[in-house]
Write a structure and sequence with these properties.
heterodimer; A: 298 residues; mainly alpha; MetI-like fold; two-stranded antiparallel ribbon; B: 451 residues; alpha/beta; D-Maltodextrin-Binding Protein, domain 2; 5-stranded mixed sheet; 3-stranded antiparallel sheet; 13% strand; globular; TAT_signal_bac_arc (chain B); Extracellular solute-binding protein (chain B); signal (chain B); transport (chain B); Bact_solute-bd_prot1 (chain B)
Chain lengths: 298, 451
């Protein structure tokens, strides 16, 4: 009996073979999923600067964060960003999706490309454009304001305007993604529903509120959850454009977490990560619950 | 159908249990506390030393300058190959040191950041020892953590008073008479009386640089944010003096608050709105490269003193070279840095005339005193400063810089508190007492108490 045949026979004859077939997934998942998770969880109860001895501090890192005004300020900044981004994005995304779903729209292909282009453009390149366009002294936006007699605005240098300006960048970058998600949801709505409503005399506006919105609720819920995750993890935008300033007004939860890591305060960074996970998990559950279709609620 | 050896739930539970137990046991962060590795110099002769090293440096002109200087090093050590790389050091080095992956053999780094990563670096105390007496005390102190030296001291960045010679002349102000900071305020008032559109004194708008600037003014008075034991000394007469001076300048509308050499800064420097820039020697870059309208009209003088007869300069920034504890060829990296910092052909190659800077590198001076001879300039007089001999001014100012305490590892993080509050002071939103009390409380709670 050849060796290859012996191997095949062994695999067939033992009941371990199914487990051997799925083992590669578990090995990879364990190495890159479970192991870092456990490592980070353990780290969150320690004080360690990346070298030398790690000291067990129990819940010290968590207590420090939960009593830290800066931690809560970072969450507050992210919450404001969420308010500035997610509701507008859902509305704009839905509007864009309805527009692109209209087969009679001229230049529909061009619009599709235009909406999606910012989403596929590298963020850092766009952030640099934002810095130039919104520069207080030489930016295009203030130049246009000056033309109509309005004064300069510190778009990126005042605490009042820095968050809306960053939110605008985020909206510009990711609304194309929202349109894709909602367009997919919209295209799943059977055309016959609209025809029946039209025969019953429903106006386009009535069709939108009574058919489109209820039937894409599931897609909207998905979008809200995904964008909630993205907003609370937002890092690159404030890192590149404002470095968290002015006066910490754009230090988002993601950027605050990063600051622990660069300060080699790895334990606090890990604890911050787990607090964020809990928060985002809770927010996602609430979003899903609020936006789930009525038939599921009943 | 055969009966499984174990059911699926049992298998998964077992696998997860084994993974969790194994992970908890095996992946505990950290290791036993050990003494930092000490580096010993190679004993072989220059011609027999061989090997390859990877060196990280900042990109830009400085990279080109060091590239040329490394060519000189290779003439002295022909069998050493230097893989010189331009890297975003601020973004990459700390993470690389922590992860221990693809660590370079040596790297350029800000003095302010070395203390934060000392445990990942070689202890160079013994290697620096022969040069210690001839190295600027300030540079030794900022490279020292717990009595051990972790960086090869490279440049010294003396603070100078940059001023518009033509405007002072027309206002009847003698720059030689600017001996104290009160004199500077008086001169600024005189300039403003003559031209009310001026706001003669530059104050920095970025939190990081404004804190670096503050530390220059503190260093001039022989103090710094912490003492040698790491105790905060913000609540002190020296810092109160600085903050009071800033407040007075702001109240008298003598301040242009602009971000370092960004468009708004350049515009007001060139327009004559700014007349005095108390800043490090590296500001020399501005009249040479950026200020088109006022090129040739700027001059440098030592900083005014805080008290009559006090030190006429303080250090603002500066960089050194570090050798990571996980470097593959640390001895060769040391030979390179020893050559660049302490050997005449090395520091001459760095500071002397070269392809990048035909007149020499004039944005800092060496910290090694044999290189600091006022009569033997490494870089030439600067045309953009009206032919002024900046070397002489800088070297004499550098000679007065007091020693400092080691820079605490959390210095860069403290910008979120102190740097921001300095901005609020310049904007008139905080008093000196508020800056001191609020910054001290936050630095103590968030940084020192968590050290």
């Amino acid at each position: 009996m050849s060796l290859a045949r012996l191997d095949r026979t062994f695999l067939r004859s033992t009941r371990l073979s199914p487990y051997l077939f799925i083992a590669p997934f578990f090995v990879v998942f364990g190495a890159f999923g479970i192991y870092p998770l456990i490592y980070a969880l353990q780290l969150s109860f320690m004080r360690w600067r990346g070298a030398g001895e790690a000291h067990w501090v129990g819940a010290g890192n968590y207590l420090y964060l939960l009593t830290s005004p800066e931690f809560w300020a970072s969450l507050g900044n992210s919450a404001v960003m969420w308010l500035l981004i997610v509701p507008i994005q859902v509305m704009a995304g839905l509007g864009g999706a309805v527009l692109l779903a209209n087969a009679k729209l001229r230049l529909r292909g061009l619009f599709r490309v235009a909406f999606i282009a910012p989403f596929v453009t590298p963020l850092v390149a766009m952030a640099q454009v934002w810095i130039v366009v919104f520069d207080q002294d030489y930016g295009l936006v203030n130049y246009l304001l000056n033309l109509v007699g309005l004064p300069d605005v510190g778009w990126l240098t005042s605490t009042a305007w820095s968050k809306p300006t960053l939110a605008l960048l985020f909206l510009w970058k990711t609304t194309g993604f929202a349109i894709i998600i909602l367009l997919a949801g919209l295209q799943a709505v059977p055309g016959g529903v609209y025809e029946a409503a039209a025969l019953d005399g429903a106006s386009r506006w009535r069709q939108f509120w009574s058919i489109t919105v209820p039937l894409v609720r599931r897609s909207m819920a998905f979008l809200v959850v995904v964008q909630t995750l993205a907003v609370f993890q937002m890092f690159a935008e404030p890192f590149v454009v404002t470095e968290g300033g002015p006066y910490g007004s754009t230090t988002t939860a993601g950027l605050y977490l990063y600051e622990h890591i660069t300060a080699s305060d790895l334990g606090t960074g890990a604890a911050n990560s787990f607090l964020l996970v809990l928060l985002v998990f809770g927010l996602s559950l609430v979003s899903v619950r609020l936006l789930r279709p009525k038939d599921e609620v009943s | 159908m055969s009966t499984p050896l174990m059911n699926r739930r049992g298998f998964l539970k077992g696998a997860l249990g084994v993974a969790a137990a194994g992970s908890l046991a095996a992946c505990a962060p950290g290791g036993p506390s050990t003494q930092p590795s000490k580096l010993a110099a190679p004993t072989a002769s220059a011609s027999s030393v061989k090997g390859e090293i990877t060196i990280w440096n900042r990109s830009g002109d400085l990279f080109k300058v060091f590239d040329a200087a490394i060519a000189k090093f290779r003439e002295a050590y022909p069998n050493v190959t230097v893989n010189h790389q331009a890297v975003d050091i601020d973004a990459k080095l700390a993470n690389t040191l922590i992860s221990g992956t693809d660590v370079p053999d040596g790297s350029f780094w800000d003095d302010a950041k070395i203390g934060g990563q000392a445990e990942h670096l070689y202890d160079l105390t013994d290697l620096i020892a022969p040069y210690r007496e001839q190295t600027a005390p300030y540079k030794l102190s900022v490279n020292t953590v717990d009595g051990k030296i972790y960086g090869v001291p490279w440049d010294l960045d003396p603070g100078l008073l940059w001023y518009r010679e033509d405007i002072l002349e027309s206002a009847g102000v003698d720059p030689a008479g600017l001996a104290t900071y009160d004199d500077l305020l008086a001169a600024a008032r005189t300039v403003k009386e003559k031209d009310p559109t001026t706001r003669p004194i530059h104050m920095e708008k970025t939190p990081f640089l404004s804190q670096l600037w503050l530390e220059m003014l503190a260093n001039q008075q022989g103090t710094s944010l912490t003492d040698a034991q790491g105790k905060l000394r913000l609540d002190s007469e020296e810092y109160r003096r600085i903050f009071g001076w800033i407040q007075n300048a702001v109240k008298d509308d003598l301040v242009t608050h602009a971000p370092y050499l960004e468009a708004a800064d350049v515009k007001t420097l060139d327009s004559g709105q700014q007349v005095f820039v108390p800043w490090a020697i590296w500001w020399s870059f501005a009249p040479q490269q950026l200020l088109k309208a006022t090129k040739g009209k700027w001059r440098a003088a030592p900083l005014p003193a805080w008290t009559p007869g006090g030190a006429r300069s303080g250090a603002m920034g500066g960089s050194s070279f570090v050798i990571p504890a996980k470097a593959k060829n640390p001895e060769l990296a040391w030979l390179l840095y020893e050559f660049l910092c302490f050997k005449e052909p090395g520091y001459t190659a760095v500071y002397g005339p070269n392809d990048v800077y035909p007149g020499g590198l004039s944005t800092s001076v060496p910290s090694f005193s044999p290189a600091l001879d006022p009569a033997k300039p490494l870089f030439q007089p600067i045309e953009a400063l009206g032919g002024q001999d900046l070397w002489k001014v800088a070297v004499e100012a550098a000679g007065t810089i007091p020693a400092a305490a080691p820079i605490p590892w959390w210095w860069a993080q403290s910008v979120d508190y102190l740097g921001n509050n300095v901005q609020r002071l310049i904007e008139g939103k905080m008093t000196p007492d508020q800056v001191i009390s609020e910054s001290a409380e936050k630095i103590q709670r968030n940084l020192i108490d968590r050290s």
